[in-house]
What does this fold into?
Amino acid sequence: MTHAAYDWLGHSLATIKKANWYRTPKTITSRAGAIVELEGRTFVNFGSNDYLGLAGDTRLIDAAVAATQIYGTGSTGSRLTSGHRQLHRDLELAIAALKQTEDALVFSSGYLANMGAIAAIVGKKDAIFGDQYNHSSLKNGAKLSGATPFEYPHNDVEALRLLLTTHRHNYRRCLITTDSVFSMDGDLCPLPELISLAAEFEAMLLIDEAHGTGVLGATGAGVAEYFHCTHQPMIQVGTLSKALGSLGGYVAGSAQLIDFLRNRAPSWIYTTGLSPADTAAALTALQVLQQEPERKQQLWANINYLKAHLKQDELVPSNSAILCFGVENPQQALTLGHLLMEAGLFVPAIRPPTVPTSRLRVSVMATHTPAQLAQLVELLRDSCSALMPHS
Ligand SMILES: *Cc1c(COP(=O)(O)O)cnc(C)c1O
It folds into this structure.
């Protein structure tokens, strides 16, 4: 492109590079799993959301292939026109059964589920109160909706109460939004307190269970189940792309909510139905989750091993499969990440502006072996004492 109208692209890219914010994707050349080949080298993978190790599971792959043989590769249309298959409905009923909600609706991604649900249920006359650390899809959903956004400090229930007291009466409907497991820290939202506040201020509550589903709660239903809040009124959003090893997102809630979304959520109405392969893989993942509770138990055994063996003062408080190892500055995060890569461990370094403080973000999988976990503990201990001699 030579037209002057596009010159700004080059300038913007240069600015991004100058700020050290420039990023490119790394190519994985093997099947998903606890061990992956990354640009030709083998690594123990501590950077994947595949918490239960299902994305490379033969049963999910076989189900995806079988569904493709039956229905073809594409759903060929939006669900309301020619894109709906019984498989979609089976998946929605399985999600509703896991979440113990009346119904559920499957979207093409978790991002689109949040955007679609939020934009459908609130508008210009309404207000959204969201946690400061909420996922990008919740924040952009709020923008798309046109509702007035308020942000409260991370997990600060008293600050939220104050905001609601001050502003709630100026708006028609009100929505509180939060990650259930915060994706960059691994801590949980104070769900029981949020449910009480929502009831007190006549607000709806939407929780994003992207990192909770398959990981937390007795049956893996998520943070709602973990806090014994399963049947409380709320809107539960999530993804099929993390512990469930597939692709797609969902909203679970009352039959009326789901019926309304089918008629009013633009990111569901005007997009092609989930592919048969993804739908079948997710459905199989839900069956495996139910049939093999030992997977989740093994995941927690691995999480607890790391929590017990990594230095407590360097671990960001977490109650999930996301464990963050705090370091002093962005450079240290990068150096530590490189040291670990040299030793054959892939652990992403997360830096500002994504997060306020630099860290290595460890994603634990059920399929990590004791030897792999021990290697991580040992390498983090050794490289940290080399990097930060005083700690
Ligand atoms: C990953 C993630 C999403 C988006 O889910 P996709 O299915 O990958 O689009 C939404 N919310 C949170 C908190 C996430 O971590």
Summary: Residues 108 and 248 are 4 Å apart (CA to CA). The pocket of pyridoxal-5'-phosphate is lined by residues 109-111, 114, 135, 137, 179, 183, 208, 210-211, 239, 241, 249 (CB under 6 Å). The first strand starts at residue 35 and ends at 38.
